[in-house]
Amino acid sequence: MNLHGMLTSRAQTGNPIRIGLVGVGKFGTMFLSQARTMVGVHILGIADLAVERMAERCLGIGWAKERLDATNCQDAVDNGTTWLMENAEEMIRNGCIDVLIEATGSPAAGIHHCLMAIEQGIHVIMANVEADVVAGPLLARKAQSAGLVYSLAWGDQPALICEHIDWARTCGFDVVCAGKGTRHHPTFCQSTPQTVWNLYGLDPQDAERGGMNPKMFNSFVDGSKSAIEMTAVCNASGLTPQEDGLGFPPASCRELAQVCKPHFDGGVLSHVGTTEVVSSLNYDMSPVEDDLRFGTFVVVTSDNNYVRRCFGEYGMQVDETGRYCALFRPSHMIGLELGISVASVALRGEPTGAPFSWSADTIAVAKRDLKAKEILDGEGGCCVWGKQVPADQSHKNGLVPLGLTHDVMLLHDIPRGKQLCWDDIEYDESCEIMKIRREMEAEFGSDVGGLAVTSTC
After folding, report:
1. Residue 163 — φ and ψ, nearest 5°?
2. What's the pLDDT score for residue 457?
3. How confident is the model at residue 450 (pLDDT cuts 50, 70, 90)?
4. What angle (nearest 5°) sits at the alpha carbon of residue 415, between those of residues 409 and 416?
5. Which of 157, 158, 162, 169 lies closest to 301 in space, CA to CA?
6. Shared domain check, 170 and 284
7. Does 152 share its domain with 162?
8. Which of 315, 348, 381 is the endpoint of a domain?
9. Cα separation of 52 and 91, whole Å?
C-alpha cells in the first residue's frame, strides 16, 4: 500500500522511472492521459506507426506542446521531455528506458518488441494480451532468466482477475471460478467490423469521436477478446479452461455465486477452478438487470461451516446453499490504472500477473464458410473468431492460435464453425513469431500432453 510513497521518493531524488510506450491506441492514450499527473515517472519515448496521430492525441489529452520536443533519447533524458518516433526499435536499442509498455495489439509486433527489450535489460508490461496468449509463458520465462520482470497490465481485466485470485488464495479460500462480464449473445460470433457498433450498443459517431477501432472492438463483440483474456488468466493463475470453452451465461452481479459454480451443485461450470465470462444480455436479447458488463469477479468456497455462516452474516453475495460466495469489482479503468503496473514492476520487481504455465489457448474458428486461397484477417475481422480451449487439446490436435491468423492464406475450403488446423493454412515457419510459438510449444508442451504438433482435423 505504499507505491505512491515510493514514486514520490523517486521524484524527490530526481530519478524517475523512465518509460517507453509502443502503441497509441485507446489503451495507450488512456495511460498517457494519467501519466501527466503521476509523480516519479517520465514518459521518455512514445512509438507509433502514425506519428502525427501521436502528437494530436497527446495534445488532445492535455499535454503541453513543448513537452513533445525531444529529438532523441538523450535529449529526452536531459530535458525531461518526450521523444515521438515511428520505429520503436530505436527507443528500445538506446537503453534509456527502465520499462517498456507494449500496447500495439499486434501479436507479432508485441513479441518482437518484448524480445528486444529483454535483450536490452528492460522490464516489459505486456498490455498486448494478444501477444501474451501466443507465447506469454515463454516470454515471461525469458525475462525471469534475464533478471527482469514481464507483467500483465493492471487496469486490463486479466491482471485485475489475477489479483482477485491471489487475494482469495492468500486468504485461504478455494477458487471456484474467476472471470469478467461482457455484452455477448451466441449469435454475435459472426459479427464483423461492419456490424460491430450496433451489437456493441454504441453510436458509430460516438465510437469515432472516442478513437475506437471497429476491428479491435469487434473482437469484444464476437467473443474473441473474452477468450483471449481468460486464456491469459488461466496461464497466469493455474486455473484450467472448460472443455468446451466459455459459455457466456447471463448473470447479474447478485447471481454470480449461483451461476458460476459447478454443474453438480446447480451451476454452469464443468469443474471447479476454471474461468467464465457472464453476459449482460439474456438469451432473448433483453438486458440483464444489474449486470457486470465491465467488471471482474471471483467465486470462492470453504469447507468450514463457520466461514460459510460468516458469508451470510456479513451480507456477501452467496448462492442459495450459502456454500459459494462471490466478490466482484463493477468496472475497470483500462489504461487509466496502468500506473499500478509501472510502479510495481519498477519499484518492487513484482509483476501484476504473469504467465507461468500453458494451461489454455485461444484458437481460431471459422465465422462463415471460407474458401481456399482466402486471406484471413485475424482477430476481430470477418473470417474467424477466437475460442478458449485447454492447451492440451490445442496442442495435440494441431489447432491454429487466433493470433497467427492475420494475413495468412487458406489452403482448403473451411465450413462455418470448424476449428482451423495447421494443415488448413499457409504459414512461414521461419518468421520470428512462428519460431517463438514453436519454442514455447517445445518448452511447455510436455506439461500439456506431448511435444508433437500434429493435425487431427
Report:
1. -65, -40
2. 43
3. very low
4. 100
5. 169
6. yes
7. no
8. 348
9. 18
